[in-house]
Specification:
The protein is an alpha+beta fold. It has a single domain, classed as Gcn5-related N-acetyltransferase (GNAT) (Aminopeptidase), CATH 3.40.630.30. It contains five helices and eight strands, in the order E-E-H-H-H-E-E-E-H-E-H-E-E. The chain is globular.
């Protein structure tokens, strides 16, 4: 086998959710684009709108490419699997600014796994990664109607702020270090 052409598989971590479920979480590879496409086809129209802040009936290559073609440091996307079925049940993304001061986050969980702590666990994965990179803060831009995400982020220590010029959005901020 020619090891120069084989991409190393990303490390899989097992994460226990608040409900006690154990999920497998790992960074994406470019080969995961079809898995993410299928995942976003399974989430509701409202969940896609909340995740991308615009209406998408189908999330294709143009939207998915920036999620899978990442440098694994300034930008990272994780996928969470139900180990029993090997099905993608959630995804999380961290996109850092150039000075590595702030990271913007985004999390999506399929509806049949909501309320089981998957979002909570993915926020912990993101926070650990942000601290490892030395970020001062993480932010999330949410549609004001996305009460579940806003409530969860507030539980995790995020503070809401108005988004100047857009009353439909709220920015939630969590300070990681002074």
């Amino acid at each position: 086998m020619n090891t120069e052409t084989v991409e190393a598989l990303p490390a899989v971590i097992e994460v226990r959710t608040r409900s006690g479920a154990v999920i497998a979480v790992r960074p994406v590879t470019v080969a995961d684009e079809p898995l993410l496409e299928e995942f976003f086809d399974r989430v509701s129209d409202e969940d896609r709108r909340f995740r991308f802040l615009s209406a998408h009936k189908h999330v294709g290559h143009q939207v998915l490419a920036p999620m899978v073609e990442v440098d694994h440091f300034r930008t990272e996307t994780w996928i969470a699997f139900d180990e029993a079925s090997d099905t993608v049940i959630g995804t999380a993304m961290l996109a850092c600014d150039n000075p590595l001061d702030t990271g913007e986050i985004a999390v999506s969980v399929c509806s049949n796994w909501r309320g089981k702590g998957v979002g909570w666990a993915l926020l912990d994965v993101i926070a650990d990664a942000a601290r490892h990179r030395g970020l001062r803060r993480v932010i999330s831009i949410e549609d004001r109607e996305n009460h579940a995400a806003i409530d969860l982020e507030r539980e995790k220590g995020f503070v809401p702020h108005a988004v100047e010029g857009d009353a439909t959005l709220v920015m939630l901020e969590k300070i990681l270090r002074d």
